[in-house]
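Sequence in, structure out. Go.
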Amino acid sequence: MSLDVFLQNVANSITLGSLYALIAIGYTMVYGIIRLINFAHADLLMVAAYIAFYGILVFTLPWYVSFAIAIVLTTLLGVSIERVAYRPLRSAPRISVLISAIGVSFLLENLGIVALGARPKPFPRPDDLVWNIQIGNISFLSLTIIIPVVTIILLVMVTYMVKKTKMGIAMRAVSRDFETSSLMAVDVNKVIGATFAVGSALAAVGGIMWSMQYPQVDPLMGMFPGLKCFIAAVMGGIGSIPGAMIGGFVLGICEVMLVGFMPELSGYRDAFAFVVLILILLFRPGGILGENVVEKV
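Output:
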């Protein structure tokens, strides 16, 4: 592999890793608070992409207005899902909440197929955001710079919120001891709602960025990215925000480099991510930055 091809793959892997990290943070936040794998999280990515798509093409809104509306509406949808599908099951066995999450995911996907059609649609790339950059023999889109910068900015904002604000302190308290926090005058429902709001907003940004990087939308577009980002969250240590970031970058870099160094294995790219998940669960179940905790029965 020549140096130019290697650097091209590095640029591609950083972009993909940033997208994985951005979406994985939403997974890990929800799990960290209520110990729930929110499988509907990946479908919020799809919802945001479609809202932005129709905002630009049908309602002819400026891209920044369409993106803002997509983020706000997706956030409201995420909070509504928590109130309708998860909150009534708060005291139920965890398997019931998990099944509810899977049901919401299937519901969003099939509603998308029925209402929007299963055929993929090309996503419009705003000229103000997407242009080609040429450095020597290396060519890449401006998104290769924009996506990692947006991911890092959002990571810093989320970390500051969790570490420095009253809501963040409440989130950490609830994640440590749900029942004791409620006895200490913490509004648990409000904290969980805020967690879903932040996670859904991150999914919306991730969906918009994903649609610009891979410019098409379809009702099942969140399925494989969602599974990959779940793997990234587990790899980094699910429940750990920095761990989700690290896991996303590691998975993205490994995927792209696998195809770059061994193109004959490109058909096994998705399988590689699941092999990584199995190995992580076998040898370090807590992930890179997570803790190995034995759950009480």
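Check: The mean pLDDT is 87. The first strand starts at residue 121 and ends at 122.
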